[in-house]
Design goal:
The protein is an alpha/beta fold. It has one domain: P-loop containing nucleotide triphosphate hydrolases (Rossmann fold, 3-Layer(aba) Sandwich), CATH 3.40.50.300. It contains nine helices and five strands; from the N terminus they run E-H-E-H-H-H-E-H-E-H-H-H-E-H. The protein has helices at residues 14-25, 32-42, 45-54, 62-74, 91-103, 118-132, 140-154, 157-162, 176-190; strands at 2-7, 28-31, 81-85, 110-115, 167-171. The chain has a five-stranded parallel sheet, sandwiched between helices. The chain is globular, with a radius of gyration of 16 Å. The chain starts with a strand and ends with a helix. Bound molecules: adenosine-5'-diphosphate. Adenosine-5'-diphosphate is lined by residues 10-11, 32-33, 36, 53-54, 57-60, 65, 86-87, 89, 93, 136, 146.
Length: 191
């Protein structure tokens, strides 16, 4: 199985690039942010809980997020592999993912990290907020909070995967197409 972790700060372009990669490599795209948002839309209990965190720019608690992600993997038992987008976001999530995939005799193949500087991120998120309807993209304070949470809790995962020789940084600034090419080049070299 090819199991990619697509990584990067909020606004790095993970969702955009994941959509392009799934087509080329026939993987299942699991975006925890998208799954939370569809639960919010459908008014589920999970959605209500997630909303209270997402609206502040905070992370949804690990046990909730991990349980949801594992259920999604289990419900795609025929998948050739996955692109994990927005997961893992904490050390506990990364450890849970390793244990879970290992129980299925598979593993994270590698992490591809989109590298984008902070000013560019804020510009992109505010721009997305004008059309996406996402409240968490419309408020500079919430955006700063998300970037801060990324620095404090998520960025450490680069070291986590580097220690397993699975970390690869990719230039995340440029045209969408050129970034896709960079990602594909890395994937094709690694598999
Ligand atoms: P972005 O990467 O632009 O912040 P996402 O759609 O990936 O957007 O996530 C939106 C929000 O959903 C996050 O700010 C967080 O509140 C919640 N979320 C998504 N993935 C996770 C996760 N793995 N753990 C905890 N919370 C998450």
């Amino acid at each position: 199985m090819l199991n990619l972790v697509l990584f990067g700060p909020p606004g790095a372009g993970k969702g955009t690039q994941a959509a392009r990669l799934v087509e080329k490599y026939h993987l299942v795209h699991l975006s925890t942010g998208d799954i939370f948002r569809s639960n919010i839309k459908e008014g589920t209990d999970l959605g209500q809980l997630a909303k209270s965190y997402i609206d502040k720019g905070a992370l949804v608690p690990d046990e909730v997020t991990i349980g949801m992600l594992e259920a999604e993997v289990n419900s795609n038992s025929n998948a050739k592999g996955f692109i994990f987008d927005g997961f893992p976001r904490t050390s506990a999530q990364a450890e849970a993912l390793d244990a879970f995939l290992s129980s299925k005799d598979t593993e994270v193949s590698f992490m591809l990290a989109l590298e984008v500087d902070e000013n560019e991120l804020i510009t992109r998120l505010l721009e997305r907020g004008k059309s996406s309807g996402r409240a968490d993209d419309q408020d500079a304070g919430i955006i700063k909070n998300r970037i801060q949470v990324y620095e404090n809790e998520t960025a450490v995962l680069k070291t986590y995967y580097a220690n397993q020789n699975k970390f690869f940084g990719i230039e995340g600034v440029g045209s969408i197409e050129s970034i896709t090419l960079g990602l594909c080049k890395a994937i094709d070299t690694l598999v």
